[in-house]
Each structure stands twice: as C-alpha cells, then as structure tokens.
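Budget justification aside, the reviewers requested a transparent look at the raw inputs and outputs of the sequence design task funded under Objective 1. We therefore reproduce one unedited record. The lines immediately below are the structure tokens for a 411-residue chain.
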C-alpha cells in the first residue's frame, strides 16, 4: 500500500548492521591503540635507558631511526599481506612482533635489546595500522560512512601517543625500566583479545592470484588519481612535520620557555584530535576534495603569516588553527583512497602511502635542520606555504577523479 510506513524488519536489520559496524570498528581501534601504545612507550623508554646508561646522543638518534626503518622497508609488504590474507594474519604478526620486542627489553635492558625492540615495535605498528585502515574501509557502504569511520580511526594514534608515553614515564620514575617494559609487554595481549573478535572476511581471491600481482606498486604509481592524492597528502604531511620541528626552533629563537613551546605543540595536537571528533557529526555535508582544498589554503595562509606572530599567544592561536586544518586531512585522504582504488588493492595502496610518508618524515627533518641553519626558521614556513599553495592546484583534478569513481567504481 502507498500509505504504508517503513518496514519494521528492514529498520531493525539496518540498526543491527550499524551496531555490528561500530562494534567491529571499536575492536579494530582498541587493537590498533594497544599495539601503537606499546611502540610509543618504547620510543620514550629506549632513549632514556640509553642516556641513563651513558651512551651518546648519536647512538640514541640511530636507535630512534630504527622505529621508522621497519615501516619504510615493510609497509608495502604489509599492504600486500593484508590484501592477500585479510585483517587477522597481519595483525597477529604485529602482535607477535610487539610481544617479542617488548620481551627483549624486559629481559635484558641492554642496548641491543632496546634496538631490536625499536625495530620490532616500529614494524608491528605499520602492519597493525595498514590492516586496521583496510578493514575500516570495508565496513563502510558509502563515502559518508568512510569519512565517519576514518575520523574515529584517526583518533586512535592520538590516544596511544598519550597513553603509551604517559604510563611508561610514570612507571620508569616510580618502578624502573623493567616494570615499564613489562607494562608494554601486556598491551599486545589486550590487542589480541580485541583482534580475535573482529569478524573474519571471506577471501574472494586465491593466493596464486594475489601473488601474481607483483607489479601492483608500480601500477598504483602509474594511476594518475592515486598519484595526485599521494602528492596532496605528502604536501600536508610535510606541513605537519615542519610544525613539529620548526616551532621549537622558532620559540627558542624568541626566548620562549620549554613549557610554553610544549603548550603550543599541545594546542596543535588537541585541535587536530578535536576536529576528528566533530567530522562524524557533519560528514554528510563534507566533500573530500573541498575539505582538502580548504585545508591546503588555510595551511598556506597560516604558514605565510606564522613568522610574523609577535608572541606565545598568537603563535598558540595560529598552531591551533593549523591543527584544525591538518587534523581533517587523514580521514579525507583515506576516504578518497578507498573510492579511487579497487578493493583488491586497498592494502597495497595504504602500504605504499605509509611507506612514502615514513620516508618523508625521516628525511625531511634532516633537510629542515640544514635549511633552518642556513636561511632561518621563517624561510622554512614560507617554503611550506608555497608548497601547500601549489599543491592545492591538484585538488580540482582530484575532485574530477572522485566524481568519475562514483559513477564508475574501480574493480
């Protein structure tokens, strides 16, 4: 009948589906947070342990580089593995690597144990994150759900970057490094408890078919839409890294105290996390390309004006606005990626993206240091303003790519 209301059984099924989606997403986030918190806690404990034992700052720098070595070398492999086996096998590998890495630190506390722990926990984080992002994308049925889901997922690293170092620091001060390592060793077991409850996805392709896609990385690079998205993401990722590196330098030049500089950086981080909480509430009104274009425009303007900020309050306000702009980027990039790339290649695309950004985050700070010493911190801000402003020219093409993918989804 035309006057009949909505079918109660359909509404009930829809509600059940939504509950299942958010329950699964919560489990994925918990597993990711636990693995990531173990790594971030190790990243605090390892350099402190070496410095306390009398090792040089150069060795500490080498140790810290090991956290990025695994993601740089193996992120693409993590993506291929996720495409081939689904969520659970890469996550279980990540959990096992985290258990082994934290156990070595717990058992020995030697320099070699901390170095291996850094390598293993850094590698584990890349496998866990690639699998989590791929699995999260499979929970969504449309672009709006993609934005909502990836906004919540992006809060996970912020939580773990607070939880891991905060608890680890307290334990080091009050109970010592071994107890702190023991705490970090417990976290992957919590991750396992959550991950094993994530429903397994059916494997639609055979192992032989997946293994035959050995040239998928080059195929992704040749994909113009993915390449444009990656360049846009890189521009904004560099802007994030520059803020983290150069604000302390600029603050030191202006005589600001360490606590004030820390507050400025903290305001940036809080703003980036806050905007990710807001995005799910307004996801229906947001278009990925428009948000990215706005983020690049705001970033370019703030970086152009930042060197002229007269004091701590104005720097803090500029950093908070920058955090709001850059905090929107990852959910939009991941939502766009899942629309532009065929589902069978989502893991590989996520892994390639992670590899590129990790290389950038490792190399760019060294270039920033050299550039800052030669031309001064202010010129680095203006360089980033130029990069992000120029990168925004790609967003119009990206908008066309997304419209084309909406009408002809990749397969």
């Amino acid at each position: 009948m035309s006057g009949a209301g909505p079918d109660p059984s359909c509404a009930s099924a829809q509600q059940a589906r939504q509950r299942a989606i958010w329950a699964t997403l919560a489990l994925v986030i918990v597993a990711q947070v636990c693995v990531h918190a173990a790594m971030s806690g190790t990243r605090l404990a390892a350099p402190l342990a070496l410095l306390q034992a009398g090792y040089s700052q150069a060795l500490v720098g080498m140790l810290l580089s090991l956290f990025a070595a695994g993601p740089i070398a193996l992120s693409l492999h993590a993506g291929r593995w996720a495409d081939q086996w689904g969520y659970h096998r890469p996550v279980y590998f990540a959990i096992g690597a985290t258990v082994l890495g934290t156990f070595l630190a717990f058992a020995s506390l030697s320099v070699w144990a901390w170095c291996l722990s850094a390598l293993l926990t850094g590698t584990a984080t890349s496998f866990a994150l690639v699998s989590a992002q791929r699995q999260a994308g499979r929970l969504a049925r449309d672009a709006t759900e993609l934005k909502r889901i990836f906004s919540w997922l992006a809060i996970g690293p912020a939580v773990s970057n607070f939880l891991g170092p905060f608890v680890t620091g307290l334990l080091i001060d009050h109970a010592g490094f071994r107890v702190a390592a023991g705490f970090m060793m417990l976290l992957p077991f919590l991750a396992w408890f959550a991950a094993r409850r994530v429903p397994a996805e059916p494997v639609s392709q055979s192992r032989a078919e997946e293994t035959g896609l050995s040239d998928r990385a080059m195929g992704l690079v040749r994909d113009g839409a993915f390449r444009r998205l990656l360049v846009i993401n890189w521009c904004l990722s560099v802007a994030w890294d520059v803020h983290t590196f150069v604000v302390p330098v600029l603050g030191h030049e202006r005589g600001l105290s360490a606590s004030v500089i820390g507050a400025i950086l903290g305001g940036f981080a809080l703003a980036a996390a806050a905007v990710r909480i807001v995005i799910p509430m307004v996801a229906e009104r947001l278009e990925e390309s428009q948000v990215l274009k706005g983020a690049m425009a705001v970033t370019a303007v703030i970086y152009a004006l930042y060197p002229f900020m007269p004091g701590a309050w104005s720097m803090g306000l500029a950093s908070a606005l920058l955090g709001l702009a850059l905090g929107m980027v990852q959910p939009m990039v991941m939502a766009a990626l899942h629309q532009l790339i065929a589902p069978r290649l989502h893991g590989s695309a996520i892994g390639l993206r992670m590899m590129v950004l990790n290389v950038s985050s490792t190399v760019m700070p060294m270039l920033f240091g050299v550039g800052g010493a030669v031309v001064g911190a202010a010129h680095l801000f203006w360089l980033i303003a130029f990069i992000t402003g120029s990168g925004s020219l790609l967003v119009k093409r990206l908008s066309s790519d997304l419209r084309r993918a909406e009408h002809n989804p990749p397969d």
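The chain has 16 helices and no strands. The radius of gyration is 22 Å. Computational costs for records of this kind are itemized in the attached budget.
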